[in-house]
Amino acid sequence: MSGTNAASGAAPCRFAHYFVICGIDTETGLEPDELAALYQWLEADRQGRDPDTAATGENFEQSPLKRTFKSKVLAHYPENVEWNPFDQDAVNMLCMPKGLSFRTQADSREPQFHSFLITREDGSRTYGFVHTFYEEVTSPQICSAMQTLYQMHQAENPSSATPSSSSSSSSSMDSLASSLDEADSPSSSSCRSAACGGYDASRDTLYVSKALCLITPMPFMHACRRFLSQVHRAVTASLPPPLPLESYVHNILYEVPLPPPGRSLKFHGVYEPIVCQRPGPGELPLADFPLGQTFPLLGVENLVQLFNCTLLEMQILLYSQDYQRLMTVAEGITTLLFPFQWQHVYVPILPASLLHFLDAPVPYLMGLQSKEGTDRSKLELPQEANLCFVDIDNHCIELPEDFPQFPNKPELIQELSEVLLRYGISPVGGAPPTSVPTSTTTLGSVSVSTRHTGLKSQQALRELEDDGRNGNLGGEQLAVLELLQGNATLERLQALAKRTGVRVEALRGVGGEGEAQGGRTAVDEEELRNAKLNVQLREVFASRFTMMFADYEAFVIQSAPDLESWLTNREQMHNFDKASFLSDQPEPYLPFLSHFIETQMFATFIDNKIMSQWEEKEPLLRVFDGRIDKARLYNVRAPSLRSSNYQRCTILKESAQAIEQRLLKIDHTAIHPHLLDMKIGQGKYEQGFFPKLQSDVLSVGPTNNNRWSNRTATAQRRKDRHRQQTEHLTLDNDLKEKYMQEARSLGKNLRQPKLSDLSPAVIAQTNWKFVEGLLKECRMKTKRMLVEKMGREAVELGHGEANITGLEENTLIASLCDLLERIWSHGLQVKQGKSALWSHLLHYQAREETLEQQQAESPVSNGPERRKSESSLGMPSLRESVIQDMRHIQSMGEIKTDVGRARAWIRLSLEKKLLSQHLKRLLSRQALTKKLYKRYAFLRCEEEKEQFLFHLLSLNTVDYFCFTSVFTTIMIPYRAVIIPIKKLSNAMTTSNPWVCVSGELGDSGVRQITKNVLEITFDCQNLGKLTTVQLGHDNSGLLAKWLVDCVMVRNEITGHTYKFPCGRWLGKGVDDGSLERVLIGELASPNADEDCGRGCRTPDMQHSPGQTRRASITSMGGRGYKPTSAQIQEAIGEAVNSICKHFHKPEKERGSLTILLCGEVGLVGALELFFHNGFKSARLFQKTVFVWDFVEKAVAYMESADQMGDMQETAEPLGLTCVSLCHYVSAINSSPRNIGKDGKFQLLVCLGARDRLLIQWLPLLVECPVIQRMYEESALLRDRTTVNDLIAVLQTLHDFPITLEASLVKGIDL
């Protein structure tokens, strides 16, 4: 144990934690890969076959050389590290994801390199770097076992001698064979032994794969790669290395520290020094995976789209033959997220045994290995509605439907392309910077200049390789050796020349070209170039976020007094003022930002910001805040002056220089490898075989505690403790456990699937976690939608903003659609189509339509619930069913895909307040659900399903127009019904009525209604929310007078019914003589007999004045209620205030101005109250006097006075005002419309408000002598102070551009 403790003491600051060797265990022999067996069991289960009859790992149809055999961790040093416990199963699986592979002397045996990472439960990462090579099998038992397997294979498959059969196996496990299995050229594959892929122990030499791995706390990819490559070279060289291999392994494990931040470090490999550097505190964090390979693999445009999908936390699946490509793209894309971090499942290399994880109904970023020639269309993925599929080898990506684009995308692509071109890299996908054969393209770019360096000859190479003097070569030979040692490409060319017998002449000038400036090798130069390119590309992305979130701190809500209370109330708190933040952003950025600020990575970023007031800042946040502060110093900009202009990154040069200076001027040099106190004679050197290392010397660190280990271990321990506190993911603390369980952190505890235990029971447990997570996410989403939508009541309860913006609402609904797709994709038996929800609906439709035909006369069992009994409102009931809504969606030619149809159906159901009921109906067909879903699926967990439907039912308490407002160009059937007051008027009329319906998106045009039918159905393009109805008739016949109670209009798809109250006569010689009225609508309340969920709703919209208000305004003294002066003035103030608020909202969210002008509490109604106060409206000879009569008499007086010259002496402006009033009144009177006297007054007020003339007309009416005859002394209109106050209030409307609906001003010629 003492060894372990000594090893662990300085572990956190050590360069490497473990050195691992994986390969074949000669004692246990050839074992079929259990993971392959488990995978076949899972595959059979997924495809609906009996899993127990599936293969158990041995597949006799495959050649034994193509099968997967169990690899083992043969040794790892040290035994354990306190800070990073060794996970043997995970390391073994990721070092050799496809198990052991065998080769013969006829096969390609090029060494390969790949990386992996393991994410621990607290979210911290450990990196692994693996060098895989082939070692000759010396065990006679294994050779004879392979011979036996091959003979059995031949007996089972006599035709297997043909080349095609050995490569025709398409088992999914085999698809995880590395690209090097298929990388052989046609010539080499055709020249395999007689059986082509066969094995004969008497003739063939058998080789098996072995992996050397370094496990490190930080991703120093290039340094680890070079170290492992040198260790392997020492094994294959003809002479033993200068020191035993234990010395080099011990050195890198215990004597090489991590470079301090902002410093570079040189340590020594077997043959040459290795340099690595670490960014300083103010720089972007370490990222050693070459973006110079990631960009050309995909192309700049594809990569920006992939970056966008990652920011929006979609499901991302990378697909490539090459493990290192998967890792390079995954790490590349996550490093570009700075200052944000990916918070969900992250598995860059997904072993075959974990393919069931693709079923995860959470965002993920995973890498899947493909087999050469595999058709993408045959790859069955559980869910694709929200999937971004990245085919790395074919340089293309498949994107989800309908997601917002990253702001300034074209300019960003342009800037990135320019950076790449400066380094000679094409910004177009498919042109990777190859400087080596394709099988090793991604093993790291090597300087292109070395490609053209000739080789001396095979003889010269052999001399160098076999030279016994080892370092005592003279002149040119020494230069060649140094170049070869420093150049991975030439090493591979050497091996290739040796294997194929090619002779290449003339290796001239090698030393000169290989040596770069200052004695640096070409590999050093290449690493420097990669590091500079990496940092410049990352800076371009980082500067975008610095610009976009420059003022984010102003919108962070710091509400808790201390950390404990913040953690306790975490779920209920609003951390970020999203509405204000969005209102401060440029319009083009809003679609992206409204989605992005809902993501887990943004929420975590804000959480870290809030916690930084009590704890040390999280490193990424510290760097980001520092950059924002620096930008403010140079560029003082008011937040309100936001611009969407693209600003280029200005620090590209400095960032590259910082790295260059560190790599050229080494800050620290580690202790050189040295002889250890070892037993003599152990680990004897044998060329081509990796020796058995002495574990006793490698399990213990150096006895003299170095100063750096002591100092940095303490600092690191403090820092690690701090990190664990900061992330609040330590499981022993109740508060932190609660924080973890928060819905937003869904996926955090599943960030990395556990690789160690993969029994079906563990898989079931994982799926159970997903079910719980989905339910929690549903609860949080519905709660958020309700709180945002509830308006004023929610604000009074302390729940945030009063008005949800249309943009935010759309984002939340899109997020709900995504959640439903993920729920419906979980546990599918067999995937059909890209949308699991729509696929389920289609199955349901097929079953129900046959039943529907049989029950055409009587409605389905739940008919009473599904029919609106609105007969009291004069509307025939509207049948509502899942199938009916599906048919509406299927008839919409605008929607082309299943995902689009599913989303439209969700929006329609939500708008109709039927989403929960529809889904309950869909899931009530249990036989169908069982047929489509596995036992562990969310939809088959009864209790969770019931809670889920209940959460969705809560959305019925608010009104959504998410279907109407999105599908604006579709044709919609409308039904209009006119309801007369039969007691007081003729039940029949001889005139010909007509109606024109207007909404926020347009009007229907005049529609004639058949006489005495009083009902019409018509199709027209979506009118949006309905605002007004023009109702009229031609006054023909004897029974032309008509008292109308209201007009009802219904959207036959959404079921929204609008009531347009009237309560007035239409006809000559009755009421105000109107033959046409403009009515203002309200959304009709559902009937009380409907379920309470449907009954609760947001407050009614304003509507046109009904009988009640008219009576109160025009009734005589004793009848009805007369408003007081104070009430009238308050009503005017409220009406003007509402109009001001309307114009202060974003344009897309304003709603109808007509309602604010002419509705029940609108400006017109309030001014009518003002004009009616003290009005002498007693009936003279049974004739009612209207306010319009006063206006007409006043205008007549002005015109006569003007003609007699009485007004010549008035001031010029007053004269012009007088002319304008006369002109407007004359135009209204001469209009062909018969809108009645009250309608004319309404029109005058609206036109006066629009043209800013109301406050000029009021003094004229007040000064006119007619007022004394028609108004009492106490009337408000005769009180100068009150009129001046009114003018001052109306003056505020001059700031706004009032536009009037066409239905109001039709036929007016000014």
TrEMBL record:
Gene Ontology CC entries for this record: membrane
Compositionally biased intervals (Low complexity): 158-190
Every UDENN domain range: 53-616
Superkingdom of the source species: Eukaryota
PLAT domain location: 972-1080
Gene Ontology molecular function terms on file: guanyl-nucleotide exchange factor activity; small GTPase binding
Residues annotated as domain RUN: 807-968, 1154-1305
Disordered: annotated segments: 154-190, 701-726, 852-874, 1090-1122
InterPro entries the record matches: cDENN_dom, dDENN_dom, DEN5A/B, PLAT/LH2_dom, PLAT_RAB6IP1, Run_dom, Tripartite_DENN, uDENN_dom
A family per Pfam: PLAT
Record keywords: Guanine-nucleotide releasing factor, Membrane, Repeat
Compartments it resides in: Membrane
Membrane-crossing residue ranges in chain numbering: none
Biased composition (Polar residues): 701-715, 852-861, 1104-1115
Family: Belongs to the RAB6IP1 family.
Protein name (Swiss-Prot/TrEMBL): DENN domain-containing protein 5B
Organism: Oncorhynchus tshawytscha (Chinook salmon)
Gene encoding the protein: DENND5B
